[in-house]
Write a structure and sequence with these properties.
It contains one helix and 18 strands. The longest helix has 15 residues, at about 5-15. The protein has two domains: about 15-100 and about 195-260, Jelly Rolls, CATH 2.60.120; about 110-190, Elongation Factor Tu (Ef-tu), domain 3 (Beta Barrel). By secondary structure, the chain is mainly beta.
Length: about 260
């Protein structure tokens, strides 16, 4: 075996013996950003909050795509709640400039790729596109590429109405377009599927239960929740309670399980 290969194997073995490094902890109410209309109802031995609500960690951590991370926490539904509720949990990505990268910059159906049927001018709210299969999801991404190398696509806009217009589709946007796009510009339909590394819709039992997930590497298609999505420099944790139900939790943290490539 070559010296370089031996060194790489030694470093890999050594890193596997290192203790996990906690890179983010969200143990107290001060760790989270909550909407002004929803506050924690329990903040002593655990945290409790009632849905529908999304909470996000105030702090973020630096992402090393070559390292492996574990996100974990202990969750339960309140004992006096008629039925156990579900929840979502995972990561919100942040770019090199500190800007959040919302899920709709990524989540898409490649089968929806089509093009503008007419020019779009600054100030327009209605956009015409050529009909495409699988066009559903609520967002339109401009300057889309077939190989998905445009992800994260920041030229993505929410539309409130979709109507047929002959051989085209007419999308009414929530806000007016601020720049021009030529007819023939490639567009794609996006949605809000999230980076659900911790949990996606599983029930939180009424007994304390540990949930966890691991993430490593980069998935350029932004469909795998066990890999980072392109452009992630840092990450925050999110928890979403999707129903009019309550969720109680504690010990939410992110740990770096293995080291990345040596410098």
């Amino acid at each position: 075996m070559k010296i370089g290969s031996l060194l790489a194997a030694f470093l890999a073995a050594a890193s596997s013996l290192l203790p996990a490094e906690e890179v983010l902890s969200c143990f107290t109410n001060a760790s989270w950003v909550t909407p002004h209309w929803r506050k924690f109802y329990a903040m002593d031995e655990f945290l409790g909050i009632k849905g529908y609500v999304v909470i996000i960690s105030k702090r973020s951590f630096e992402v090393d795509p070559d390292a492996e991370y574990e996100i974990s926490g202990t969750f339960r539904s309140p004992a006096d709640q008629p039925k156990p509720g579900n929840f979502e949990g995972g990561f919100i990505l942040v770019d090199d400039d500190g800007n959040s990268l919302p899920s709709y910059f990524y989540s898409n159906d490649p089968r929806s790729l089509t093009e503008l049927a007419a020019d779009v001018k600054p100030g327009d709210k209605v956009v015409k596109i050529k009909k495409a299969p699988q066009w559903k999801g609520g967002f339109i991404a401009f300057n889309a590429r077939e190989d998905l190398s445009d992800l994260p696509n920041r030229d993505t806009f929410y539309y409130t109405r979709l109507a047929e217009d002959g051989d085209n589709l007419a999308l009414t946007l929530q806000i007016k377009i601020k720049k021009a796009y030529k007819a023939g510009t490639k567009v794609r339909c996006h949605n809000q599927k999230k980076l659900w590394t911790l949990n996606r819709f599983k029930i939180a039992p009424k007994e304390w239960t540990r949930f966890s997930g691991r993430i490593k590497g980069v998935d350029k298609t932004a469909t795998n929740c066990s890999k980072w999505w392109p452009g992630a420099a840092r990450a925050r944790v999110f928890i979403l309670v999707p129903q009019n139900a309550s969720l109680e939790f504690k010990d939410v943290a992110v740990r770096k399980i293995t080291a990345g490539k040596p410098e």
